Amino acid sequence: MSGIKIFGVITGAIALTETLLKLYKAIETRNDLPEAFLEVGKRLPLVEEILELAKGLTDGLEEEHQETQALKQNLDDCHSKLSQLHKIFRQISKGDAKEKSLVDVYQKVIRKLKLDNKSGRVEALMKGTLDSLQLLTMHRAFKDAMKTQAAHVSQTKEELEKVAEEMPSLPDLPEGTRGDNVNYGEINRQFANWGEQTNIEGGQWNIAGAYIHGDQVLGRNPQERRGNGP
Q: Considering the entire predicted model, what is its pTM?
């Protein structure tokens, strides 16, 4: 593992961050943009600053050193989180997405990324990015030059944790519920598929394997419709 490979990963992460900044500028004025998106966007310059600084400090890294391999894995994780953020921001910034519910578009991207409502939130992805950058600032090759940035990362992580707790960009799901069973329609109306059982009790709708939020539209079992008519 050489410094050149580390340099390449950092360069790729910088390119993603630069694109993210442009995408953020394109969506930051949307009235329906969750506050968490704004908080994430404000942190992108810090991400870029740390990566740019690290890019110029890779020459001293030793080839095939275990510590360098761990650094490469950490940077790969950082790149992965930035890539996921990029896909979310890009989809929301598309022209046709502006005519749709932001939450609906957001949720669909998360499903495609095979993430759940918690790990796929933009604030969670940014925190994961900052976790990786915090480890980067502690590496022997970078720590002396990044003391100020390390302090900023720690403070920023605390701020994002508060955002995640008080203003999550997506709602929590009940334990054991998969994100792909939750639909956010443009008129806040959900259509639930039939599960193994349907219980209507005490004014609550419980359908096996699904979480229902907002107005519900429930129909008969398809077999009943075919057999008995409307």
A: 0.74
